[in-house]
Structures are given as C-alpha cells and as structure tokens.
Amino acid sequence: MMQEDGPKRVVGSRVVKVLVHRRDDRGMSLEPFASRCVRQGEVHELVTTDQTDTTPGARIDRVGFLGFVEIGNAGVIDRGDEVRVDGRLVGTVLGFDACHHPNHYNILISTPEPRTGPEVGMNPELPVVFQPA
C-alpha cells in the first residue's frame, strides 16, 4: 500500500463571528475531496454534525453552527483532523460543503451531537486550530 500523507503544519485560525442556531433539514452535500487547501486571511464556516457518512455527495441535514474563522496561516485541512477551540477538542473534520464557495467553505466537523458556538465556548478572537489527530 502506498502512503500518501506525510507530516504537515497545524492550521491556525481565529473566531470572527459566533453562530447560535441548528437545523435538522440543512441539505448540505459532502464534497468528494478529503482535504482542502486554505490560504491566510480566508474566512470559512464551521458546522458540526452527528452524521458520519463520508460518501461523496452525502446529504448532511442535522447540523449545529459554530461560527466563522479567519485562517491565520496557509495549510491543508484533512478529513480526520482534530478541531480545537481555545485548546479544547470539539471534534474531527468530516469533510467540506461548497454551497457558498468561492465565498467560503462549510467545514463539517464530526461531533456526538450537533453543537452551536456558545455550546463549545466560542467567542470572537479565540484561537481555533486544525491539527492531525
């Protein structure tokens, strides 16, 4: 079996807006890509879900919205990366939804139940990192 992934840098970001709502009928669609490159200064949305299907095009309905983050350093975010808010583990990257791209990606985060920004202690300027598990 050929190994594809080597070591990578942690992608740092900061909260720019906290979101407080959830939905059971969102209808996001999982992109066929297990990783996305992000650039310094980009803003992306963080969305939690308890759904686990990683099939390309899988419909993601049960979601909690965490908020938006500004990327602090360019890097690669991979499915399975840990997402930490102010050092606390929130979940792992499930994949990406591009319904708002090129404005931003929805970065889908696997959690036991959909959670919102206040439920994970998000506040503007808190650090959020994406790092290998």
TrEMBL record:
Residues 7-131 form the DUF6917 domain. Pfam families: DUF6917 (PF21891). This is DUF6917 domain-containing protein. It comes from Saccharothrix variisporea. The lineage of its organism: Bacteria, Bacillati, Actinomycetota, Actinomycetes, Pseudonocardiales.
